[in-house]
Amino acid sequence: MKYLVLLIALSVSGVALADGGMDILQKRCVSCHDLSGPAAQSVQELWQRKGPDLFYAGSKYNAEWLEKWLVKPRRIRPAGHHSIQHIKPGDKRDMIDATTLRPHMALSPSDAEEVTEALMKLKATAEMMGTTVFKGGSISTSFGEMVFDKFNGCMACHEIEPGFGGLSGPEVYTAAKRYQADYLVSFITNPQAWNPKTPMPNKHVSAPNIQKIVQYLQALARENRDEKK
Amino acid sequence: MRKNKLFLTLFVSLLMLSSAAWPDDAEDNYKNYCWQCHGMTGDGMGLNVQDMSVQPRDHTSAKAMGGRSDADLFKVIKEGGLAIDKSVLMPPWRDSLSDDEIHDLVKYLRKLCQCS
Could you say which of A119, A148, A168 is where a domain stops? Predict the structure, then answer.
């Protein structure tokens, strides 16, 4: 009998240690976030996914950012996920319908730690990652902005500081805080490899300019434009 | 009959195995990709236009759209604004849409502008 109790206690604690984060994910997150893949195969299927896919989280996020954000989430996509579900016609242009946007749930610091650990184990396939990686280096924000905006038109859909730029995509002034540099290179190189129906186009930016854009995103992140909001 | 069924099953499972995603209809594609800039009604007043240096085309205007051939529209959707000497802000959509889907979108645009 004693042994039995010990055995049960051991196995329960074992489960809690190994799978606590995954347990929380399955209970509280899977209704909005896909955890097993693949990405949506049709536009309709995409629209049914209430939050971004997390099944490759370990190849995407900076763990340190992830854990902090889960405790204190703040909006990343000004018009929500998916923008088409949160807009209404306005006088001069379509406007964000803020009444349809909800704040993201927050986790306790200990839950966030476990969830982060579980999420960082979910890796992308080699096919998604591709072969190009970030090679390092830095660039000034003024030259970077030319490459991002003038040469490649990325600002059409992305804010480069609060209140300046397009609204349908995620803000990019925090992108390098949130995401690993190799993910950024890979996603910009071939967004459809990650999500075939993503509204983000492949703009066929040259490989050297993709490196410059990621250097620019890092320079933006260092300016902490989000904290001046 | 049985053979047909077998082929159908084979065909469907091949489709599911292939990495290519399903084709979508023009209305869904327009909403997913084009609304961002061209707007919910296609009038060129999308969510993103405020800070854009070149304004997106008004797809409901027969005047703005009438001057473009179907071949031009196909080309600009597939290869982007630069391919027809227009703005870099219009992205190439060839990695998101198949040729068939783009042809369907051209037809959809003709309905929006009620022009040919």
Answer: A119
A192 touching B (Cβ < 8 Å): yes
- The closest alpha carbon to B82, from A207, A149, A203, belongs to A203
Q: What are B43's two structure tokens?
A: 């009038």
Find tokens 């396939």 and name the residue: A125
Enclosing domain of residue A145: 126-227
Shortest alpha-carbon distance between residue A169 and chain B (Å): 9
Model pTM score:
0.91
Q: Supply the ipTM of this predicted assembly.
A: 0.90
Residue range A159-170, pLDDT digits in tens: 999 999 999 999
Answer whether CATH 1.10.760.10 is correct for domain B24-113: yes
Least Cα separation, residue B36 to chain A (angstroms): 6
DSSP B55: P
CB-nearest partner of A93 from B32, B45, B89: B45
How far is B68 from B81, CA to CA, in rounded Å? 13
Interface of A with B in 81-110 (CB under 8 A): 83-84, 87-90, 92-96
Residue of A nearest to B87 (CA): A153
